[in-house]
């Protein structure tokens, strides 16, 4: 009877786990994610620039004149 146990152990030792090349751990995924990140940041920067160029009103309100009690001069 010890022989079947040895055979089972031997079968367990012979089982090889296949190397799983996961896409989320690959270099391609890293490159794509970096490109998407840079594109997103650049897109937001361009959107903000367009807002400040075309929509933002940069004119200052008039400065009120302050009346002094004595002559400033």
TrEMBL record:
It holds the Pfam family InaF-motif. Keywords: Membrane, Transmembrane, Transmembrane helix. The chain crosses the membrane at residues 34-56. This is Uncharacterized protein. It comes from Stomoxys calcitrans (Stable fly). The lineage of its organism: Eukaryota, Metazoa, Ecdysozoa, Arthropoda, Hexapoda.
């Amino acid at each position: 009877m010890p022989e079947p146990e040895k055979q089972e152990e031997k079968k367990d030792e012979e089982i090889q786990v296949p190397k799983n090349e996961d896409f989320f751990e690959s270099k391609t995924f890293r490159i794509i994610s970096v490109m998407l990140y840079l594109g997103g940041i650049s897109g937001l920067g361009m959107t903000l620039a367009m807002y400040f160029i075309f929509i933002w009103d940069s004119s200052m309100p008039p400065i009120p004149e302050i009346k002094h009690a004595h002559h400033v001069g």
